[in-house]
Amino acid sequence: MTDSRIAPDLVATDNYTRATALKADYEALGATLARRGVDIEAVTRQVAEFFVAVPSWGVGTGGTRFARFPGTGEPRGIFDKLDDCAVINQLTQATPNVSLHIPWDRADVSELKAKGEALGLGFDAMNSNTFSDAPGQAHSYKYGSLSHTDAATRAQAVEHNLECIEIGKALGSKALTVWIGDGSNFPGQSHFTKAFERYLASMADIYKALPDDWKLFSEHKMYEPAFYSTIVQDWGTNYLIAQTLGPKAYCLVDLGHHAPNTNIEMIVARLIQFGKLGGFHFNDSKYGDDDLDAGAIDPYRLFLVFNELVDAEQRGVNDFNPAHMIDQSHNVTDPIESLINSANEIRRAYAQALLVDRKALSAYQDDNDALMASETLKRAYRADVEPILAEARRRAGGAIDPIAVYRASGYRRQVAAERPASAAGGGGII
Question: Quick one: DSSP state of residue 77?
Fold first, then answer.
């Protein structure tokens, strides 16, 4: 039996008070969609089967380059983090898997697995950290890791990734995500070609150790922490990496890792077309790599990304099974509330994309009718699909209004009493 962090009776009681209104809203939306030839039940079933992984690091309070202001009841380690992740899944029924980060989440693997099973949680892609130094490591990553000029430093970074694979194998994970901060801050500091050659050689060593049923995700980012150049700076370089390494290598798209106004949905389409879309780190941004809550700034862009995903899904693209993960930093909100909202916003974009009249859209595209093609997308985007999201949660045992139940539960106050307050820290996104 799953160990519930919030009393199931509280969820049931709150749902009971909202059930009549939800039923009316759901039926009204169903009637509206039926006039468009859309079966609301089919959409609800698809939404209920769409899941996104939550990041272990996301349940802690983040920060900026200048300061971090701790929240109350912050997790003391991975086992507290799993408790918080279980709350998110209990209320949303959308986040059954957790993505771990090593060495931040290093712990006894058998205990990790037992804790996950008790909470009804599985483990998604493993994440390696060679963008900062861990206590006691022999070689510093200040000037790079997988692309470092020093062979011993590169070997250390490779070995760390191999450790992540071994941990993941024991936990049932099937993927490794590699993001590095390697790059340069001054022109001339690094030889672009030699650095990239060293990176590819290091990644090849990691790739060789990958189990046959695993995927390797490389992640591009145009800047930060290196501000002049980064090793994997854009999707084109990322694609070259995946092509060079082999069929188990794919590109991971983080929505914040692009220049402002970049057409991310077109990048997604290109990677789908050439079979190298591995998955996503969902978040949002206003100016740069802000790691804001998914859908907080540009929900239409999130919808347009899902429009490409649903298009590929419905076209039956071969071996199309991208990973979906959240990657956010929460500075001024309760991290659990932000992750609850983000999981629902991601499902909202998926539900809206399922409503696109693809036959009509294709016809408008073939006729070069730009206005009506755009309106076809907007018609789906403007649909209020909240009743579908709420009904999907309710049927799975989640909360109709998960934020209301979470606040009523007093969970944050409870864990604040159990977990010592964190001291204010320096800069750093996590």
Answer: S
Mean pLDDT of 357-379: 98
Q: Does residue 75 contact residue 84 with C-beta atoms inside 8 Å?
A: yes
Q: Rounded to an integer, what distance in angstroms lies between the CA atom of residue 96 and that of residue 88?
A: 9
CA–CA gap between residue 96 and residue 123 (Å, rounded): 8
Which band of pLDDT confidence, cut at 50, 70 and 90, is reported for residue 2?
confident
Nearest to 53 by CA among 81, 77, 89: 89
Distance between CA atoms of 347 and 309, rounded to whole angstroms?
13
Long-range contacts of 285-288 (CB under 8 A, 24+ apart): 285/255, 285/256, 285/260, 287/260, 288/223, 288/224, 288/256, 288/260
pLDDT band at residue 429, thresholds of 50, 70 and 90? low
- DSSP characters over 312-376: HHHHT-TT---EEEE---BSSS-HHHHHHHHHHHHHHHHHHHHT--HHHHHHHHHTT-HHHHHHH
Indicate the pairing of strand 249-254 with strand 277-282.
Answer: parallel
- Rounded CA separation 195/83 (Å): 41
Q: Which residues contact 252 (CB under 8 A, 6 or more apart)?
A: 177, 179, 217, 218, 219, 238, 278, 279, 280, 281, 323
Instruction: Give residue-wise pLDDT tens across range 219-241.
Output: 999 998 999 999 999 999 999 99
As a residue count, the chain comes to: 430
Cα torsion 341, 343, 349, 353: sign: negative
Distance in Å from the first CA to the final CA of the chain = 33
CB atoms within 10 A of CB 176: 26
The number of angstroms, rounded, from the C-alpha of 78 to the middle of its chain's C-alpha atoms is 18
Q: Tell me the average pLDDT across 351-361.
A: 98
Beta bridge partners of 252: 219, 279
Per DSSP, helices labelled H in 77-191 are 78-92, 109-119, 151-171
Q: pLDDT tens across 141-167, in order?
A: 999 999 999 999 999 999 999 999 999
Whose structure tokens read 């992640």? 219
